[in-house]
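Cross-posting from the modeling subforum.

Setting up a comparison between two proteins and wanted a second pair of eyes on the formatting. Protein 1 (sequence, then structure tokens):
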Amino acid sequence: REGSVTKPSTLHHVEVDTEMDLCSICLDDIVDPIQLPCGHEYCTHCIQALRGFSGVQQCCPLCRATLPPGPDQLFDEAVRRYVKIERQHSKGAFSWGDLDQHCRVISHCQSQSVMNELKRELQTVYDMYNESASQGHAGAQCNLGFLYEVGRGIEQSDQKAIELYEKA
């Protein structure tokens, strides 16, 4: 597998119990809580700050489970993968919307399995942009809006594109 970022594992924003839990990073009441895949909850800004420190192991402070990739990592990896797909697409002289139809006719498509792999990779890009956008990354929101606007690998939706552009 290429790159250091794999399929995104989601962080969940959660509601804190009435007995205000303490964040084990800042030792204060949890503000804008986020739950890691391991189940531990922290302030969103504390996790963002933890990710910002170079040299600090990217893991849960309590159980040492590896943190899922953050919005910046997801965005960077999605852009890298999308550029790779775009380069392959630009060599093929077929449109995104007609990918299946042209694959049957154009000699550039050596096999259906190659095209299926490109579609899977594009789905991974979409998933990474979506996860990064859900964590508030403006660039991911904009790029995801573009994918919806032009229908690249997903069903075209001007409404979803506008919503994402407004968030960005």
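Protein 2 (same layout):
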Amino acid sequence: MKEHPKVGYIQTDLGYQTLLDNGEVIGEASKERPSDQYAIYENFPTNRKALEKSVAKLVS
């Protein structure tokens, strides 16, 4: 069964970038909305480690 990535956010030095369902990064998410401050890394096998690290930074 093929995994279908979800939209998520990754933290960068400039803010948060939106990750599309194909894994492509598209621009910054708004820093004003708290929901944008949590990375969603489910079903991103190639980016999972990087996203887990950004989640660890957010919760620490």
